[in-house]
Write a structure and sequence with these properties.
Layout (H helix, E strand, L loop, with lengths): L2 H22 L5 H27 L8 E4 L12 E4 L2 H20 L14 H18 L3 H19 L6 H32 L4 H8 L6 H18 L6 H9 L2 H27 L7 H24 L4 H21 L3 H32 L15 H16 L5 H16 L2 H26 L11 H4 L16 H19 L3 H12 L2 H7 L19 H23 L6 H24 L4 H22 L1
Antiparallel strand pairs: 1-2
Helix pairs in contact: 1-2, 1-4, 2-3, 3-4, 3-10, 3-13, 3-18, 4-5, 4-10, 5-6, 5-10, 6-7, 6-8, 6-9, 6-23, 7-10, 8-10, 8-23, 9-12, 10-12, 10-13, 11-12, 11-16, 11-23, 12-13, 12-15, 12-16, 13-14, 13-15, 13-18, 13-19, 14-16, 14-18, 15-16, 15-18, 15-21, 16-21
Length: 622
């Protein structure tokens, strides 16, 4: 079997596993379902690892491509479905597969639900989720990208509302599903416009055919509509309102996948669609795309950081942290250069390990104490400080970009590329990383050490984290070993990513291939100018990168310390600082919190406003 033959297996393996579990789940016990799920998840990860090793070290212009069913292009035109194995796409699929494998291990005997008569439902949905993510990452067909994205989304909706006996998960899943479905309809309409213009559905073929047309309002409308569905899934402002509500009610293993890889795939998809479809003649000018998307990324990063700092509900805190980092990912990807793409890919990989680990550790707290309220857990988790507490602190430091974590190395690549284009963006990476990491460290100090004064009551009952239903029947049970081992392994992987030699060369080459339209068209069967020259390797660590990583970490530690111990200080300076913070809260924070009403109608209105704003911006800048 050749490497090309492995590409269809990246979708087939989890689909077959999900079908088998759905059919046999009525007759086999839970342990049998867990074993089957682990086998299929391991096989999927092994196939993708082989593919990634091949693509990461192959030569430019020779990315493997598989035409499903043998329907190859004829005279540059295609009706078949192509799967393309470029390094970033295969790497995104591998990341999804590894996180699914971690979730399967974490969930081993985790739920007493579902009912014993249907134990295969949850793992079947997880494998369907995996099939959608992997298919989306490697497909070269725009319509099938939509299909895989919707398969991913449908499984995610069902997993979010999995505990149907509780109305809150059902409400969160409905909001998640409806808002994302509206975004998907926008994407489908955009795909229809492109098909009417070009008669093609392959991404490379559409991009080639657009070269025969000028950039008009139809092209702009198609780009904005396709982009909308991807930005909704990525939770980019103003399409982000669904994310915190979904994370607050979804089971912990589902949160690990939503924040660890699903929203990042939205940013990946936006970059992929631009480079393959709209970056050439007849598409959208690069300066317009760079300007609009960098602005969106900056706003998303700042809003996520501010809202993250305001949360006492751990899941919401981590969800808004994800929004903040998605803004940084979007800034890196929107720079439209190889170093930005490399930084985006590496930053996402490191962030996935750290964020999934933090959600897994939050699940341990929910398992033991039936709460995710930082104020309610004040000092109660001291018994876990040597295990869960230390790992939680490590996760916060990783989010802050501490070298040598992989998040720090990815942040170093991305902020160097961003600073080369606009120096002030370097400060954005430092501040957002510091604030989100500091929020996690502040929570750790309060929960595991009981540090500082007991926090006063603030925030409404919807965001406090009190009254959460434990995800197991016996909250006082001993912590299962897998629930500690999995986050430890995830954080160790994040650390290993930053320490591995030659990472800069591998991701630098992957970033160069990702932004090379000619290489992708060659892999998809179109004639072109040929392969690009291999890029020079990026340095693994630079003095500036280490210094900025230490700076953002120092900011995180300082913010956490001031939040825990600072308010107790007296004196004119302390009173002036408190007055300034109160004024900032009244003018900035309270209005922001008011915008996050949780009402579906408001979310839909913001989606419509976002589409209109994007249409206006790209129409003026085309």
């Amino acid at each position: 079997m050749s490497v090309v033959d492995l590409l269809p297996l990246t979708v087939a393996i989890p689909l077959v596993g999900a079908a088998l579990l759905a059919l046999s789940g009525h007759w086999i016990r839970r342990m049998g379902c867990d074993i089957l799920t682990a086998l299929f998840a391991t096989a999927q990860a092994a196939v993708l690892l082989v593919l990634w090793l091949h693509t990461a070290h192959g030569s430019p212009g020779h990315s493997p491509a598989s035409w499903v069913g043998g329907w190859t292009p004829h005279r540059g035109e295609s009706v078949g479905i192509v799967l393309v194995g470029d390094p970033v796409g295969v790497g995104a699929a591998l990341l999804a597969a590894l996180l699914v494998l971690a979730v399967v291990a974490y969930s081993w005997r985790y739920f007493d639900e579902p009912p014993a008569r249907m134990p295969g439902t949850f793992p079947a949905l997880v494998l369907l989720f995996e099939a959608g993510m992997c298919g989306f990452a490697v497909t070269g067909d725009l319509f099938d990208a939509f299909v895989f994205f919707e398969l991913m989304g449908t499984a995610a909706y069902a997993l979010t509302g999995y505990r149907v006996e509780d109305p809150r998960p059902v409400q969160g899943a409905l909001t998640f599903g409806l808002v994302n479905s509206l975004g998907a309809y926008c994407s489908l309409l955009g795909i229809g416009l492109l098909y009417a213009r070009t008669g093609e559905l392959g991404m490379a073929q559409i991009g080639h055919a657009l070269g025969a047309h000028r950039t008009d309002l139809l092209t702009v409308a198609a780009f904005v509509l396709v982009l909308t569905g991807l930005l909704v899934k990525a939770a980019v402002v103003p399409f982000h309102f669904w994310l915190a509500d979904a994370h607050a009610v979804a089971p912990t293993p589902v949160c690990m996948l939503l924040s660890g890889v699903m929203v990042e795939l939205g940013v990946y998809g936006a970059a992929r669609v631009y480079w393959t479809v709209f970056s050439g003649a007849g598409g959208i000018p690069a300066p317009a795309v760079r300007g609009v998307l960098v602005c969106l990324g900056v706003v998303t990063a700042l809003l996520g950081a501010v809202m993250c700092w305001q949360q006492r509900h751990l899941k919401r805190l981590l969800a808004f942290s994800t929004i903040g980092h998605v803004g940084l990912f979007l800034v890196a990807a929107a720079l439209l250069d190889p170093e930005g793409a490399a930084g985006f890919a590496l930053y996402v990989a490191g962030h996935a390990g750290a964020k999934a680990a933090l959600f897994a550790l939050t699940g341990v707290l929910l398992d033991q104490y039936g709460s995710v309220d930082v104020h309610g857990l004040f000092g109660r988790a001291k018994a876990l400080r040597r295990s869960v507490g230390l790992l939680f602190v490590a996760g916060g430091l990783a989010l802050a970009g501490l070298p040598p974590f992989g998040t720090g190395l990815g942040k170093s690549f991305a902020e160097h590329a961003a600073g080369s284009w606009l120096p002030v963006l370097t400060a954005l990476f430092v501040v957002v990383s510091g604030v989100t990491g500091g929020a996690v460290l502040r929570a750790a100090l309060r929960m595991f050490a009981g540090a500082g004064r007991r926090p006063g009551e603030s925030g409404g009952p919807q965001t406090s984290g009190e009254g959460e239903e434990p995800e197991v029947r016996d909250p006082g049970r001993r912590v299962p070993r897998t629930m500690i081992a999995v986050p430890a392994v995830l954080l160790a992987a994040c650390l290993a990513l930053g320490l591995a030699p030659g990472v800069g060369g591998v991701f630098g080459r992957a970033g160069a291939l990702f932004v090379s339209r000619a290489d992708y068209q060659a892999a998809a069967g179109l004639p072109g100018p040929g392969a690009t020259a291999p890029p020079p390797p990026l340095p693994d660590w630079t003095t500036a990168g280490v210094a900025l990583g230490l700076l953002s970490t120092a900011l995180a530690v300082g913010l956490a310390a001031v939040a825990v111990w600072g308010p107790a200080r007296r004196g004119a300076t302390a009173r002036a600082a408190r007055r300034a913070l109160a004024a900032c809260s009244r003018t900035l924070v309270l209005p922001l919190r008011g915008l996050h009403s949780g009402r579906l109608g408001d979310d839909v209105a913001w989606l419509g406003a976002g589409v209109a704003a994007l249409l206006g911006a790209f129409s003026l800048l085309r």
